[in-house]
Design a protein that fits this description.
Number of strands: 0
Protein name: Cardiolipin synthase N-terminal domain-containing protein
Number of domains: 2
Subcellular location: Cell membrane
Number of helices: 4
Main location: membrane
Radius of gyration: 51 Å
Keywords: Cell membrane, Membrane, Transmembrane, Transmembrane helix
Largest sheet: none
Distance between the termini: 150 Å
Membrane topology: Multi-pass membrane protein
Helix content: over 70%
Structural class: mainly alpha
Length: about 140
C-alpha cells in the first residue's frame, strides 16, 4: 500500500515538474523508472530526479501592503479628475439652461409685445369706428333737421 502511494505521488510529481528542473534524464525516462522499478524508482525520483529549490532563509522584504484609497495618490488624482470633469459638465449645463431661459423669456416678451400691439390696434380701430359712427350719427341728425 505504501509502495503504491509512493508510486502515485512520484509519478504525479514527475509529470507536473517543469522540464528545466530535471537533473540528468528526460521525463519519459523518469516515468519509466518510477513505474518499472517499484519502490526504488519513486525513491530515486524524489532523491535525485529533479533540482530542488532551496527555501530562502529570510524573506527579502515584507510584501507591500495595499494603500488605503485615501492614501493612494493615483486614486486621489483620479477622484480630482472626475470631480473637475463633473464640475465642468455642471457649469456647461447651467450655462445652457440660462441661455434657454433667456431665449424663452425673449420669445415670450416678443409675443407679449405683439399681443399688446394687436390689442392697441384693435382699440384704436374701435375708437375710430366709434368716432365714425358718432360722426355718421351727427351727420344723420343734421340732415334730418
Amino acid at each position: 500500500m505504501v509502495a503504491i502511494a509512493l508510486l502515485v505521488y512520484a509519478l504525479i510529481d514527475c509529470l507536473q515538474t517543469d522540464s528545466a528542473r530535471f537533473r540528468s534524464l528526460n521525463r519519459v525516462a523518469w516515468v519509466a523508472i518510477i513505474v518499472l522499478i517499484p519502490l526504488i524508482g519513486p525513491i530515486l525520483w524524489l532523491a535525485v530526479g529533479k533540482v530542488r529549490q532551496r527555501p530562502q532563509r529570510r524573506p527579502a522584504a515584507p510584501p507591500a501592503r495595499p494603500l488605503a484609497p485615501d492614501d493612494d495618490p493615483e486614486f486621489l488624482r483620479h477622484l480630482r479628475d472626475i470631480d473637475t470633469k463633473h464640475e465642468q459638465m455642471l457649469n456647461q449645463w447651467e450655462a445652457d439652461l440660462r441661455k434657454r431661459e433667456a431665449e424663452i423669456k425673449a420669445k415670450k416678451d416678443a409675443e407679449d409685445r405683439a399681443a399688446a400691439e394687436e390689442l392697441e390696434r384693435r382699440r384704436q380701430a374701435e375708437a375710430r369706428k366709434r368716432e365714425d359712427e358718432a360722426r355718421h350719427h351727427t351727420d344723420d341728425e343734421d340732415e334730418s333737421r
